[in-house]
Amino acid sequence: MLRLPSVLHKIHCLMTKPFGPKSLKMRMLVAVLIVIVAAIWGFAVRMSAVLQADLEKILIAQMSATADFVTADLDSELQLRMDLLSQAAAAITPAMLADPAKIQRLFEQRSLSRELFPNGLLVADKNGAIIADYPPRPGRVGTYIGDREHFRASMTTNKPYVGTPVIGRFSNQPVVPFAMQLRDASGAAAGVLTGGISPLDPNLFKFRENLNLGMIVRVVVMSAKANMIVFADNQKRIMQKLPAKGLNPLLDRRLGERIEVPGIAVVSNGVEALNVNRFMKTTDWMVITGVATKTAFAPIKTLQREIYLTALLMTVAIAALLHLIFTRHLRPLEDAAKAIGHMAEHGNALTPLPVAQDDETGRLVNSFNRLVVERNRLHAALQESESTLKKAQSVANIGSWTLNIADAKVTWSSQTYKIFGIPAGTPLSREFVLNCVLPDDRELVSNAWQTALRGAPFDVEHRFETAEGMRWAHQRAEMTFDDAGRALMAIGTAQDITDSKVSEAYIEFLAYHDALTKLPNRLLAKDRLELAMAYSDRSHAKAALLFIDLDSFKSVNDSLGHLIGDALLKAVATRLRESVRETETISRQGGDEFLIVLSDMPDNEAIAKVAEKVLENMARVFNIDGLELFATLSMGVAVYPDDGRDFNTLLKKADTAMYHAKEAGRDTYRFYAEQMNAEASEHLNMRNGLRLALERGEFVLHYQPQISLASGRVVGVEALIRWNHPELGMLPAGSFIPTAEDCGLIIPIGEWVLHEACRQAVAWQRAGLPQFLVAVNLSAVQFKRGELEKSVGAALAASGLDPALLELELTESVLIHDSDQVLATVRRLKALGLKLAIDDFGTGYSSLAYLKRFSVDKLKIDQSFIRDLGSDMEESAIVRAIIQMARSLNLTTIAEGVESEHILHLLRSLQCDVVQGAQVAMPMAADDIAAYIPGAGKMR
Ligand SMILES: Nc1nc2c(ncn2[C@@H]2O[C@H](COP(=O)(O)O[C@H]3[C@@H](O)[C@H](n4cnc5c(=O)[nH]c(N)nc54)O[C@@H]3COP(=O)(O)O)[C@@H](O)[C@H]2O)c(=O)[nH]1
């Protein structure tokens, strides 16, 4: 598309070069001049031609009249001589032929006109010998003329005959001979009478006297038969031969066809002449009268010159006049063109022009002015959109570029310079641009370019170096082609896609790796195990999958927070990596679970060695954020091909083996054994069973009494859930609570426990039992996911139990989390008026701070300390410290797992407040409590 300035420039050029080949004025001038000059000159030429034709006609008429006159005159002269000769011949009798003297006398008596035949008369006998002459000349008689043409012709005809001019044998001058046959008595030719006259004789060509031939008219008489000129104005030409055939086509035609036609021809003296011809009646002679055209047309030529000169003067005058008119009328147009040209050449802003007159030019300028207004509006809009585009490109980090194929000229937008880290304005070339591409990617870019030259879209991603390091660019271009399919120009964009490339790479990395530890994920582990299995098939070695689960990681997470938990996981990943060959794969499954893929293992012993090394490495203390932590793990091992031939089977079996390692006391590993499989299915069955148990009401609560050491009375009971399994009988809480926590069923189960315990407590009171606390265990899961306050409130409301008789047992890990949410929940629970006991106290991260903050009422010292109380000094010290600390905080202490009198005694000496355990009473059904309490009114 032409841009407006270039269009303006063209208009300007056309208008401001008035005599250039593209000048409108010149073209109009030339066009009008052609019309006028054609008319003038057409008229002049036509007039000149008509005049010439008319003059020609007049001349031809004049020539014709002259020719007719000359022909008639000459015919009359010849006829006169032929008649005279006939009469003379008739007078010569046959007898006179026999006696020539008589003929002589006859000539003398008759005195035949010498005027007509100045050259005299001759009589020849039939043999051609002259027998008489008049006037007699000595020596003439006896002369032979039988060879003359006129003699021979007359011997064959009985008519007078005009012969071919010859040179007279006696006069030695040209002679026109006349001849008449003489006959004998039998009428046969007996001789010839001849008479002669010179062609120069004025008596023969008398017309000369009667013709005012003037200077211009010429007369020529010629004999076709004799092929010579008989008479001519120019005497030298008399008896000359006629022009050879072809030299004068008009003459050839006249003589050949014997026609009388006027015409112009170049005659034998080289002069062009207009002439007419006539044939004589008395002989074959042809008379031509003519006039030299130069002379004849002289007057008309002068006239023609006058006409042409007038036409020329008129042409010049009209041209000048037209030029003046056009200049005057086109001036406003030229002025407008100059002004437009000025704007175009100097890049001035386009401004409307003054309108000089109300005609086509005025309308043109008006249209231009409207165009200027519209163009200025569009220009402003374009500038705005260009600036928006520039901003958008800058935001999107997109630059643009062009490449002219013919001269390899490259242009870059400022953003493109910025993207490639090259100072704006640096001269560019195709080579320079290619050199910006990282050497490794140049072939890729070149190939893409070559393909684009053949019509495919140019779309390539490549790397390039900048001062800040390697970056990625995405270049796209569209090519324009000529009609022959040759590439002309490429217009493209360049975008810095480094960020998206990095993200892409990270996303790709994340598809196969764990974001936290950067270890391969399950997918990649699967892939690696499959490679290891394929290798084993070839090498007859073994492969192994080690399933690792950290022991007690949950409590680390719960007690120290996720940040520490994450840091520990990363440190564990490093330890695992240190434990195996570099070629082995370590993978994180999520949470605290890891996999190790071992390949090329000769036997199980080698696999066990790796497992032991892992455990050994884990035994060292971890320093996480200044905290010294110990982490152990449980590991299950499945071996290929012994335990399975695919990833999923091996994973399942390694998982099962890992559970067995856990059950075996943790911090150990187990190879998979078939027996384990059955147990794993049992675990699975249990989940389903728990769900059904809740629906079918198979849960029951047993209650374990808690006795005050001071009073010996039952001060409380701990509600402990039991599953009355239809096939397996009464199952203890420890056998299914962890599974219920795992699968989330602990929420509805926990709610049931709360309702049931509260209901039972009220039932006991109603049955007249003394008041005592009912302690209900709460799982951390309930705290996190359940709506605990609602459940507790609902249980209290439903049962009508006094909240002061309800005690909730929480493990330390719940409180240690110390989040605002936990604090708020605990405070709201406490606000209900119930009691709070810390279960398993001493096993976690015991802290005085949270005990105060959460307004804890009771510490329940863990069984593990109580069990070894008598034998282990350290444990005794711990129990003592806990009891003293509790006293200082005004908290009640309760010892659980009291199994002997000895321990009971020790606890009493340590001033523990309450005891619970086999030594006192094992958990029992609700009905048994009613029976137990009155009897146990006082402890022994
Ligand atoms: N969230 C809930 N947890 C519950 C619930 N009911 C029980 N539990 C928790 O399950 C764990 C195991 O409980 P259980 O199998 O019921 O064992 C309890 C007692 O039977 C047992 N015990 C009591 N005295 C002795 C003894 O002298 N020796 C000995 N070896 N064991 C004894 O101790 C368990 C009570 O422990 P604790 O809660 O720490 O007081 C257990 O952690 C229960 O908390 C429930 O409804 N919800």
UniProtKB/TrEMBL annotation:
Keyword field: Membrane, Transmembrane, Transmembrane helix
Biological processes annotated in GO? cellular response to nitric oxide; signal transduction
| PROSITE patterns (alphabetical) | EAL (PS50883), GGDEF (PS50887), HAMP (PS50885), PAS (PS50112)
Describe the location of the GGDEF domain by residue ranges: 541-674
Drop me one GO molecular function for this one.
cyclic-guanylate-specific phosphodiesterase activity
The residues covered by the HAMP domain are: 327-380
Q: Which Pfam families match?
A: EAL, GGDEF, PAS_3
Transmembrane regions listed in the UniProt entry: 307-326
Q: Where is the PAS domain?
A: 385-456
Q: Which domain of life is it from?
A: Bacteria
Q: Which reaction does it catalyse?
A: 3',3'-c-di-GMP + H2O = 5'-phosphoguanylyl(3'->5')guanosine + H(+)
* Gene Ontology cellular-component terms listed: membrane
Q: Which residues form the EAL domain?
A: 683-937
Looking up PANTHER family in the UniProt record yields: BIOFILM ARCHITECTURE MAINTENANCE PROTEIN MBAA (PTHR44757:SF2), DIGUANYLATE CYCLASE DGCP (PTHR44757)
The name on file for this protein is EAL domain-containing protein
